[in-house]
Amino acid sequence: MAAAPVWSVDPRTGKRREQVAVEATAAEVDAAVRAAHDARDALADRRVRAALLRRAADLLDGAGERIVEAADAETALGPGRLTGELGRTTYQLRAFADVVEEGAFLDVRIDHADPALTPPRPDLRRYKIPLGVVAVYAASNFPLAFSVPGGDTASALAAGCPVVVKAHPDHPATSELSAALLRRAAAETGLPAGVIGLVHGFEAGIELVRHPLVAAAGFTGSVRGGRALYDAAAARPHPIPFHGELGSLNPVVVTEAAADERAEEIGRGLAGSMTLGTGQFCVKPGLVLAPRGPAGDRLERSLTEAVSNTEAGVLLDHRMRDAFLDGVRERAALPDVQAPVTPGAGGEHTVSAGFLTVPAARLAEDGGAHDLLLEECFGPVTVLARYTDDAEVGAVLARLPGNLTATLQLGAAECAGEDAGAGASGGGTGTETAMGGTGTEAATGGTRADARSGASGGGTGADAGSGASGAGTGADAGTGVSGGGTGAAASANGTGRGARLLAALTPLAGRLLVNGWPTGVAVAPAQHHGGPYPATTSTATSVGGTAVERWLRPVVHQDTPPALLPPELREDNPLNLPRRVDGRPER
């Protein structure tokens, strides 16, 4: 039987553009993985790895016009957005080259033998080594930064791991072009082409994670697709690490003080964040808790005006468009849900942005129909939940699953560590609210309405109802948010309502923002892009220099003769690596 063709499709029209490839057979997946496995030794030299990453960045920059044109034709993300994404991608490659050259990621530690200790200590020398072949599952919404030349690939290569990428079906032509440039960079730095493999197709994605020579996997996509691959990775005879980014609601809490001071600014900022990229960012704010009353009304009017003036946009593919339309229709039909600006179809191939409102008390109800509003809906929509007091804020936060981000909009006094009143109503009693007693989230799980990566590249439809319970999410018990109570746990170094709210949000997310918006993830050493399940399946980050740690494991040498030690662990430090010797940093 002939292999299924892989088509590049124009999301602006839904029409096929060109056949790019054919779906990989099991034999072709096996060949790609074995070629990568055979290339491991070639990546052992850190200088070669750094050269590969820099040359890849140069070639991608040099082909920028072609790459942006190809990506725009397949994703409709626009030349401006894609040019910025390409710049981010090549910056990321060069940043990982710097990480490789600096060498701290190897975490070299030497403890010399000390027979005087009880018990006596042998000579111990520890560092980290690459895991082996890494499977990377490309995302739909970032055809460069989270796809073939993206952060998973760059960090794996930096660690010394060859990569086989499962291309996303929404941008196969861009994937082929990017892979060709990476292979060219490999050839020009003296590396075999097998260091970068590329396969297409749903079944290829399954075969890849099950292959016995694949040592780890990175994924960005839907809860349903990611969970299927995560389970497959765990079910192998030899389970492997699976670092997946699955789904995130990215809650925002707006205090009454913040709304009093700058309701219009917050409304405009929220509109810009939730509609950025037609709402197709994994960190889009999908749930906003705002106070009832005049200040909250001003915020809602500002949001209404800004969203109403947003032009209709194109989603990444028509499957996602259908899922978005079904998702907003189902949510809008729930009792007490209103649509000041109705999200939905903008035209035959486009969608219009909108937002829904609901009393926050509805979201605090356990196991009701409104749980749907606590699940991510991929596209330009958010839910504005109007709360009466801090008890309602606490009750809603306690039911949320894990997230990539959580945002606070605070007033000036709250930012200064001072109480700005006793609750949303402005005259509350100061009653403490325990935020989350058990630490487990609602069974709804926070699913993703698109198939943003499709395990496989091919999942369609809404993922509603597929979430799995993720223990450990939800705000910690006893973390109060009252505006004026006395028994609240705040934080080790902060006081006041702002600190208490921040403490309440901390267990929910990997990145906390104050008076900003979560869309946009800076590539920086201190960045963390991850969070409690279902935001991610591990505690690692997929953005920033420490993302390299996902693809390494520690090894310690005990009383190994000096002549047999790897260069990284030798006494004279021939590679000039940063290290800790007997507990003291040195180089």
TrEMBL record:
<dbReference type="InterPro" id="IPR016163">
    <property type="entry name" value="Ald_DH_C"/>
</dbReference>
<feature type="compositionally biased region" description="Gly residues">
    <location>
        <begin position="455"/>
        <end position="473"/>
    </location>
</feature>
<feature type="compositionally biased region" description="Low complexity">
    <location>
        <begin position="431"/>
        <end position="454"/>
    </location>
</feature>
<protein>
    <submittedName>
        <fullName>Aldehyde dehydrogenase family protein</fullName>
    </submittedName>
</protein>
<dbReference type="InterPro" id="IPR015590">
    <property type="entry name" value="Aldehyde_DH_dom"/>
</dbReference>
<feature type="region of interest" description="Disordered">
    <location>
        <begin position="419"/>
        <end position="473"/>
    </location>
</feature>
<dbReference type="InterPro" id="IPR016162">
    <property type="entry name" value="Ald_DH_N"/>
</dbReference>
<dbReference type="InterPro" id="IPR050740">
    <property type="entry name" value="Aldehyde_DH_Superfamily"/>
</dbReference>
<dbReference type="Pfam" id="PF00171">
    <property type="entry name" value="Aldedh"/>
</dbReference>
<keyword id="KW-0560">Oxidoreductase</keyword>
<feature type="region of interest" description="Disordered">
    <location>
        <begin position="558"/>
        <end position="587"/>
    </location>
</feature>
<dbReference type="InterPro" id="IPR016161">
    <property type="entry name" value="Ald_DH/histidinol_DH"/>
</dbReference>
<feature type="domain" description="Aldehyde dehydrogenase">
    <location>
        <begin position="8"/>
        <end position="393"/>
    </location>
</feature>
<feature type="compositionally biased region" description="Basic and acidic residues">
    <location>
        <begin position="568"/>
        <end position="587"/>
    </location>
</feature>
